[in-house]
Design brief:
This protein is α+β, with helices and mostly antiparallel strands. The chain has 2 domains: about 160 residues, Rossmann fold, CATH 3.40.50; about 80 residues, Immunoglobulin-like (Sandwich). It is about 35% helix and about 25% strand. It contains 8 helices and 11 strands. Strands 5, 8, 9, 10 and 11 form a 5-stranded antiparallel sheet that branches. Strands 1-2-3 form a 3-stranded parallel sheet, with helices on both faces. α2 packs parallel to α3. The longest helix has 18 residues. The relative contact order is 0.09.
Length: about 260
């Protein structure tokens, strides 16, 4: 395990990144050089949507967004999803987004109702693990130790161990899938069962070297999909797996095991 700590000088890089054409690709390019040497690369980004956070999103396969027990935190989490959708217009791979409820007080009816509403809103994107409000987490940070060395039998340690186990379980069932379209077009989008057949910028293919391409991260399962090419819904000619649709045409089939 290796750790690259932050430093005060890092706060000055935001303005420099904003002035460069590839300002959100710096961390992704570094990741490409390192990822084959590690099982996981974990990036802890600042709690804002500046260029450091955008770099982290660009470089990540998965993003875990914490939500405190308040409406402002939930709105901020939803803004991340909007930003990722906007990024989809310009980059060919986006992270799968997951959410984690933190600072949960089980004695509070407000906290319990908040969890229920959040589960209804985020569904499978919300982790089952909930990080409870625990004084030992604060004490561990003050002592400069991780919670497992400071108080391994605390609720904080149990919650974060459960989080690690759930994260490993979720991510091992998610596959990277590349969609490509090789003909001339002005705009290409992919839509299917995995996004409710919505025409979302997040699923727009990006043209590079005369090929339209988008990489998505999808859970194991069976999906129907189509390309929307300049407003026309067509099946993927590069995929031989087809299923008749209800309009005299075909859906392409994607099977992830």
């Amino acid at each position: 395990m290796y750790l690259i700590p932050s430093c005060l000088e890092l706060s000055t890089i935001e303005a420099r990144l904003a002035k460069t054409a590839q300002g959100i690709d710096v961390l992704n390019e570094l990741k490409e050089l390192l990822q084959s040497n590690f099982d996981y690369l974990i990036i802890d980004s600042p709690p804002n949507l500046g260029f450091l956070t955008l770099n982290a999103l660009r470089a990540s396969d998965f993003a875990l967004i914490p939500i405190n027990i308040d409406i402002f935190s939930l709105e901020a989490a939803k803004n991340v999803e909007k930003i990722v959708s906007l990024m989809g217009k310009f980059i060919d791979a986006l992270p799968s987004l997951f959410y984690l409820i933190t600072l949960f007080d089980r004695r509070s009816s407000f906290s319990k109702n908040f969890v229920i509403r959040t589960k209804e809103l985020l569904k499978q994107q919300l982790f089952e693990t909930i990080i409870r409000n625990n004084i030992h987490l604060r004490e561990a940070a003050t002592a400069g130790k991780d919670i497992f060395r400071y108080m391994k039998r605390s609720n904080g340690a149990r919650d974060y161990l459960q989080l690690a186990q759930e994260l490993e379980e979720k991510t091992k069932h998610i596959k990277a899938v590349g969609f490509s379209y090789t003909k001339e077009a002005k705009q290409v989008t992919v839509a299917g069962d995995f996004n409710g057949w919505a025409l979302d910028d997040k699923f727009s293919l990006i043209r590079k070297d005369n090929i339209w391409y988008k990489k998505l991260y999808l859970p194991s399962g069976k999906y129907r999909y189509k390309f929307v090419v300049d407003g026309r819904w067509i099946h993927d000619e590069n995929n031989p797996l087809l299923q008749e649709d209800n309009f005299g045409g075909y859906n392409s089939l994607l099977i992830l095991e």
